[in-house]
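User: Just a sanity check before I run the rest of the batch. Below are the structure tokens for the first item. I only need the designed sequence back.
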């Protein structure tokens, strides 16, 4: 192609057609410039396509992580919190109705009351996003929501819940030892095991137990409240990401 244009220029010069030569030369320059601009535009399109592909990949990873967290809450955390609620409600019914409770039944309810959860969330995909630069998320509102969720909201919600668990654990352990003991059991068929037994009578009026009950009640309320906040944050983020991926 270059040889073709060069031959045309040479013929114009040999024929002493200077005016036509300059017009042709200008036209050739314009074509070259247009070619360069087209090449740059194609390159820009390719770069944008690569960035969009990377953004889509990161958003899908975030979405998968959110879905796994939400499923884990449904499978593990919520059933434990519901068990805790059941234990609290059952014991409270006996306490306030002034009913006599068998030791074995108390221990069953107490085992439910003792259910604990440790709040977690997966921040791996967000850390990957940070390493690529938050600006890769083109939607300003979505970028801000993601950043706020993983740097402020989720860490705070999990911290408050887990901090209460860690803070009260030694106190509960100390109080519990005052009214519950371990007992060795030897069955006639030779089986051996250790199980919990009560040290005190009239357990529902025992002050050590009542303190534990009150602490566990506060923990339940904290777990339920924080898990609701975590789920709300993740569900709102899930909706925004799905909407962005559908565009």
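Assistant: Here's the designed sequence for the first item:
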């Amino acid at each position: 192609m270059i040889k073709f244009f060069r031959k045309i220029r040479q013929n114009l010069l040999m024929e002493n057609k200077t005016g036509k030569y300059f017009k042709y030369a200008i036209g050739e320059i314009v074509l070259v410039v247009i070619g360069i601009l087209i090449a740059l535009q194609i390159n820009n399109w390719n770069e944008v396509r690569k960035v969009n592909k990377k953004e889509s990949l990161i958003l899908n990873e975030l979405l998968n992580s959110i879905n796994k967290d939400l499923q884990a809450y449904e499978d593990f955390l919520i059933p434990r919190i519901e068990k805790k609620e059941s234990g609290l409600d059952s014991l409270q019914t006996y306490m306030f109705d002034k009913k006599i409770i068998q030791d074995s039944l108390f221990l069953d309810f107490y085992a439910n009351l003792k259910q604990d959860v440790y709040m977690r969330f997966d921040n791996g995909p967000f850390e990957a996003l940070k390493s690529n630069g938050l600006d890769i998320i083109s939607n300003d509102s979505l970028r801000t929501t993601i950043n706020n969720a993983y740097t402020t909201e989720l860490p705070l919600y999990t911290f408050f819940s887990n901090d209460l668990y860690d803070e009260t654990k030694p106190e509960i352990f100390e109080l519990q030892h005052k009214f519950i003991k371990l007992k060795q059991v030897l069955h006639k068929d030779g089986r051996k095991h250790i199980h919990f037994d009560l040290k005190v009578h009239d357990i529902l009026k025992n002050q050590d137990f009542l303190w534990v009950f009150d602490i566990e009640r506060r923990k339940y309320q904290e777990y339920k409240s924080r898990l609701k906040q975590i789920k709300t944050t993740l569900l709102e983020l899930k909706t925004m990401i799905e909407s962005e991926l559908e565009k």
